[in-house]
Automatic annotation (TrEMBL):
Residues 126-245 form a coiled coil. Keywords: Coiled coil, Cytoplasm, Cytoskeleton, Microtubule. Residues 1-20, 39-69, 254-297, 436-482 are annotated as: Disordered. It holds the Pfam family Cep57_MT_bd. It comes from Lingula anatina. Residues 360-428 form the Cep57 centrosome microtubule-binding domain. Residues 269-279 have a biased composition (Basic residues). InterPro entries: Centrosomal_MT-associated, Cep57_CLD, Cep57_MT-bd_dom. Residues 75-253 form the Cep57 centrosome localisation domain. Residues 280-289 have a biased composition (Low complexity). This is Centrosomal protein of 57 kDa isoform X2.
Length: 513
């Protein structure tokens, strides 16, 4: 910038500049009179044109401020403009000095001419020259004052630039300090985060190891749980089988024992409710026939299944309960006596006692087939009993469990009825075999007696007496009462049991449930 505006290299704009005081403007001294005497070289400073010899105009509404702006760019621009102005003023001063020198030389030259023409010219020319010289002097003084003012402004601008540079250095220093502090804080934060990450990685490794150990333990516990569930299922199945077997044995024992002993010896199992067992006991006791104290059950140990152990104390075990039943059966207990027959008149039969023996031999095949069917039905009921027990053990719903228990009670009642039928049929078969053996041992009679009449004894023993009437010819003919023997009594009991079995059997009893 200094080279562009140096005084040694004036620009084209300043090369064509002509001062109003140069001699070119007054090429002819004679034309000096053309200049108005009232015109002066100096004029008022134009506020709309702050720069000299430029076309820049400023709005009158905007005041011209000599103070620079606070912005650094404004300050730099103001400094540059001041430097340009100073250079222009120096150029103008140099040009004015040159013009002044030229004017001095010209004045000296013209002075001679004036001296020669002094005589001929008026005093007006002398005043004009003096006026021009005064104008030049006034221009010089104005230029000097402006230069002084610009120098003062330049010095003020330099101070402002120095202050701005100091502020800038302080701001840069402050910024570097802040950056350094931020960097230190960032490094400290990064270090703390790295420490936290390392701690979290160690914690993650520890938790991973703990999780793997926990998963192994959980897997082991799940395997143990599965094994325990499997064992529990096996135990439940075994318990259901044992309970079914116990129920079957109980029903068979009750069927072998007298009928009225069921209501007293039957104890509710753990799987049934007390309310249902109480209702069942009351029903059984209401249907129990009167007991015949003279007819007791005689225990045959060959018909009793083998049970390990000899304890007869009450227990929850199946074997102990069966042993208690056996101990009760060995003693004289009215609850284990044979069921009494219904009181009332016995139907009179027109068939003879010998007809029962012949009928039993012909029905042996049918009874064996019926026994097989009843045993198959009882086995099917036992299987259903076991399945119901499994369903009860696996059931979670209370209502479903109640329904299954109700169905189980109904099935147990059917099993008891079926066991009753099997026991009666077995007893009937045994009686038929005994009668057949007795018939083989006895000799055949020469003549058969006419139909006998059955009458009941009025005693409380409930025994049936057979009265045989024999008609004879003669004056002393009369009724002869024959006392029934043990064989006829057994035949009558067998016939009564057979009729009870026939009346108790139904069509549905011979089909699968």
């Amino acid at each position: 910038m200094a080279s562009l505006y140096s005084p040694t290299r004036p620009s084209a704009a300043y090369s064509s500049y002509r001062s109003p005081l140069r001699p070119g403007m007054y090429t002819n001294y004679r034309d000096r009179s053309m200049v108005d005497d009232t015109s002066t070289v100096h004029g008022e400073y134009p506020p709309t044109r702050p720069f000299i010899n430029t076309d820049y105009t400023r709005s009158p509404a905007k005041p011209v401020s000599a103070l620079p702006e606070n912005d650094r760019q404004g300050v730099m621009g103001a400094l540059k403009s001041l430097q340009d102005k100073i250079r222009k003023l120096e150029l103008e001063r140099c040009m004015a000095e040159g013009n002044l020198k030229n004017l001095a030389s010209e004045t000296s030259r013209y002075r001679d001419m004036l001296q020669r023409e002094q005589m001929t010219q008026d005093a007006a020319t002398a005043t004009a020259v003096s006026r021009q010289s005064q104008e030049l002097e006034s221009q010089l003084t104005a230029a000097e004052s402006r230069c002084n003012l610009l120098e003062k402004q330049l010095e003020y601008m330099r101070k402002m630039v120095q202050n701005a540079e100091k502020d800038k250095e302080m701001a840069v220093h402050r910024h570097t300090m802040l950056d350094r502090r931020k960097e230190e804080d960032l490094q400290a934060g990064l270090q703390s985060q790295l420490d936290k990450i390392a701690e979290l990685e160690r914690e993650h490794l520890r938790l991973t190891a703990t999780q793997s150990l926990a998963e192994n333990k959980i897997r082991g516990l799940e395997e143990r749980l599965q094994e325990e569930q499997h064992q529990r299922k096996l135990i439940q199945e075994r318990a259901a089988e044992l309970q079914t077997a116990a129920e079957t044995n109980r029903i068979l024992l009750e069927a072998v024992s007298p009928q009225h002993s069921r209501a007293e010896d039957h104890k509710p199992t753990a799987k049934r409710k007390k309310k249902k067992t109480t209702a069942k006991k009351s029903t059984a006791s209401s249907q129990k026939p009167p007991v015949d104290p003279t007819n007791h059950y005689r225990l045959n140990l060959n018909e009793i299944p083998f049970v390990a152990g000899k304890a007869v104390t009450p227990s929850h075990a199946l074997g102990a309960n069966v042993q208690q039943v056996l101990s009760l059966m060995k003693k004289h207990n009215p609850s284990l006596c044979a069921a009494a027959r219904k009181n009332g008149l016995v139907r009179r039969s027109t068939a003879s006692a010998s007809s029962a023996y012949t009928g039993s031999s012909s029905e042996e095949g049918d009874l064996a087939e019926l026994m097989v069917q009843l045993q198959d039905e009882f086995a099917q009921m036992s299987f259903e009993h076991q399945e119901l027990l499994k369903q009860i053990n696996e059931a979670r719903d209370y209502r479903l469990r109640e329904d299954l228990e109700r169905e189980l009670d109904h099935l147990v009642a059917r099993m008891e009825a079926k066991g009753d039928q099997i026991a009666r049929l077995k007893k009937h078969q045994e009686n038929l075999q005994e009668l057949r053996l007795k018939k083989k041992k006895k000799k055949p009679r020469p003549q058969s007696a006419p139909p006998s009449q059955y009458t009941t004894n009025g005693s409380s023993s409930g025994e049936v007496q057979v009265t045989t009437t024999i008609k004879t010819k003669g004056h002393g003919a009369g009724k002869i009462h024959a006392v029934p023997t043990a064989g006829t009594r057994a035949a009558l009991n067998l016939l009564k049991d057979m009729r009870k079995l026939q009346t108790s059997l139904r069509k549905d009893d011979l089909s699968w449930e």
